[in-house]
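Below is one such protein, fold included:
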Amino acid sequence: MKPTPRALYIELRRRFNGANNGDIFLSVRDAARALNVSKDTAHTAFRDLVERGFIRLTEGGHLGPSGIGKAAKWALEEEPTRDGKPATKSFMRWQEEKQNPVRKSRTPRPENSDGTGVNGASGASTVRDFRTLSANSAASLSG
Protein backbone atom coordinates (compact mmCIF):
# COMPACT_ATOMS: atom_id res chain seq x y z
CA MET A 1 0.00 0.00 0.00
CA LYS A 2 1.21 3.51 -0.71
CA PRO A 3 2.46 5.79 2.09
CA THR A 4 -0.53 8.17 2.09
CA PRO A 5 -3.18 5.53 2.93
CA ARG A 6 -0.88 4.12 5.59
CA ALA A 7 -0.44 7.58 7.13
CA LEU A 8 -4.21 8.15 6.96
CA TYR A 9 -4.84 4.87 8.77
CA ILE A 10 -2.43 5.96 11.50
CA GLU A 11 -4.29 9.29 11.77
CA LEU A 12 -7.63 7.49 12.11
CA ARG A 13 -6.13 5.08 14.64
CA ARG A 14 -4.78 8.04 16.61
CA ARG A 15 -8.31 9.46 16.86
CA PHE A 16 -9.67 6.14 18.16
CA ASN A 17 -9.98 6.24 21.97
CA GLY A 18 -11.15 2.68 22.59
CA ALA A 19 -14.85 3.48 22.80
CA ASN A 20 -15.63 5.59 19.72
CA ASN A 21 -15.23 3.08 16.88
CA GLY A 22 -17.88 3.88 14.29
CA ASP A 23 -17.92 7.51 15.43
CA ILE A 24 -14.40 8.54 14.46
CA PHE A 25 -14.80 11.94 12.82
CA LEU A 26 -12.42 12.83 10.01
CA SER A 27 -13.29 14.82 6.93
CA VAL A 28 -11.30 14.71 3.71
CA ARG A 29 -10.20 18.33 4.25
CA ASP A 30 -9.04 17.64 7.80
CA ALA A 31 -7.21 14.52 6.63
CA ALA A 32 -5.54 16.50 3.85
CA ARG A 33 -4.44 19.13 6.36
CA ALA A 34 -3.18 16.50 8.84
CA LEU A 35 -1.22 14.60 6.18
CA ASN A 36 -0.05 17.71 4.32
CA VAL A 37 -1.48 16.49 1.00
CA SER A 38 -4.16 17.73 -1.40
CA LYS A 39 -7.86 16.95 -0.93
CA ASP A 40 -7.81 14.67 -3.97
CA THR A 41 -4.90 12.68 -2.55
CA ALA A 42 -6.64 12.37 0.82
CA HIS A 43 -9.85 11.23 -0.91
CA THR A 44 -7.87 8.57 -2.82
CA ALA A 45 -6.29 7.41 0.44
CA PHE A 46 -9.74 7.00 2.04
CA ARG A 47 -10.91 5.05 -1.01
CA ASP A 48 -7.85 2.75 -0.88
CA LEU A 49 -8.41 1.99 2.81
CA VAL A 50 -12.10 1.24 2.23
CA GLU A 51 -11.35 -0.98 -0.80
CA ARG A 52 -8.79 -2.98 1.16
CA GLY A 53 -11.12 -3.36 4.14
CA PHE A 54 -9.21 -1.39 6.78
CA ILE A 55 -11.96 1.17 7.43
CA ARG A 56 -15.70 1.49 6.85
CA LEU A 57 -17.83 4.59 6.41
CA THR A 58 -20.58 4.57 9.03
CA GLU A 59 -22.07 7.97 8.24
CA GLY A 60 -21.24 10.13 5.24
CA GLY A 61 -20.41 13.80 5.48
CA HIS A 62 -23.41 16.08 5.06
CA LEU A 63 -24.85 19.49 5.88
CA GLY A 64 -26.45 19.71 9.27
CA PRO A 65 -29.83 21.36 9.96
CA SER A 66 -28.22 24.75 10.46
CA GLY A 67 -26.28 24.48 7.18
CA ILE A 68 -22.97 23.71 8.87
CA GLY A 69 -21.12 20.71 7.42
CA LYS A 70 -20.76 17.50 9.40
CA ALA A 71 -17.67 15.34 8.91
CA ALA A 72 -17.89 11.72 7.92
CA LYS A 73 -17.80 9.03 10.62
CA TRP A 74 -15.47 6.07 10.21
CA ALA A 75 -15.05 2.67 11.82
CA LEU A 76 -11.84 0.68 12.06
CA GLU A 77 -12.51 -2.84 10.82
CA GLU A 78 -10.15 -4.47 13.33
CA GLU A 79 -12.08 -3.25 16.39
CA PRO A 80 -15.67 -3.92 17.49
CA THR A 81 -17.97 -0.95 17.08
CA ARG A 82 -19.48 0.82 20.04
CA ASP A 83 -22.94 -0.58 19.28
CA GLY A 84 -21.57 -4.09 19.93
CA LYS A 85 -20.97 -5.32 16.37
CA PRO A 86 -17.86 -7.52 16.23
CA ALA A 87 -14.79 -6.62 14.22
CA THR A 88 -15.09 -7.82 10.62
CA LYS A 89 -11.36 -7.78 9.83
CA SER A 90 -12.21 -7.75 6.14
CA PHE A 91 -8.70 -6.58 5.32
CA MET A 92 -7.52 -10.14 5.97
CA ARG A 93 -9.61 -11.44 3.06
CA TRP A 94 -8.48 -8.80 0.57
CA GLN A 95 -6.43 -10.04 -2.37
CA GLU A 96 -4.75 -7.91 -4.97
CA GLU A 97 -6.04 -8.46 -8.46
CA LYS A 98 -3.47 -10.13 -10.64
CA GLN A 99 -2.82 -8.07 -13.71
CA ASN A 100 -1.38 -9.43 -16.89
CA PRO A 101 1.63 -7.43 -18.00
CA VAL A 102 0.90 -5.22 -20.95
CA ARG A 103 3.38 -5.67 -23.74
CA LYS A 104 4.33 -2.62 -25.68
CA SER A 105 3.74 -3.05 -29.35
CA ARG A 106 6.84 -2.05 -31.17
CA THR A 107 6.85 -1.14 -34.81
CA PRO A 108 9.77 -2.84 -36.54
CA ARG A 109 12.20 -0.72 -38.46
CA PRO A 110 11.56 -0.81 -42.20
CA GLU A 111 13.92 -2.96 -44.20
CA ASN A 112 14.88 -2.89 -47.84
CA SER A 113 14.38 -5.95 -49.98
CA ASP A 114 18.07 -6.96 -49.60
CA GLY A 115 17.80 -7.13 -45.77
CA THR A 116 19.63 -3.90 -45.05
CA GLY A 117 18.25 -1.23 -42.77
CA VAL A 118 16.95 2.24 -43.49
CA ASN A 119 20.38 3.66 -44.38
CA GLY A 120 21.12 0.91 -46.86
CA ALA A 121 23.54 -0.96 -44.59
CA SER A 122 23.16 -3.52 -41.84
CA GLY A 123 23.80 -2.41 -38.25
CA ALA A 124 27.23 -4.06 -37.84
CA SER A 125 28.69 -2.62 -41.02
CA THR A 126 27.37 0.83 -40.13
CA VAL A 127 29.54 0.89 -37.00
CA ARG A 128 32.57 -0.37 -38.94
CA ASP A 129 31.99 2.13 -41.77
CA PHE A 130 31.75 4.94 -39.24
CA ARG A 131 35.07 3.97 -37.64
CA THR A 132 36.74 3.72 -41.05
CA LEU A 133 35.30 7.07 -42.04
CA SER A 134 36.54 8.66 -38.81
CA ALA A 135 40.04 7.22 -39.30
CA ASN A 136 40.14 8.42 -42.93
CA SER A 137 38.94 11.89 -41.90
CA ALA A 138 41.58 12.15 -39.20
CA ALA A 139 44.31 11.08 -41.65
CA SER A 140 43.22 13.61 -44.25
CA LEU A 141 43.16 16.41 -41.68
CA SER A 142 46.68 15.68 -40.42
CA GLY A 143 48.29 15.18 -43.79
Q: What stands out?
A: The longest strand covers residues 55-59.
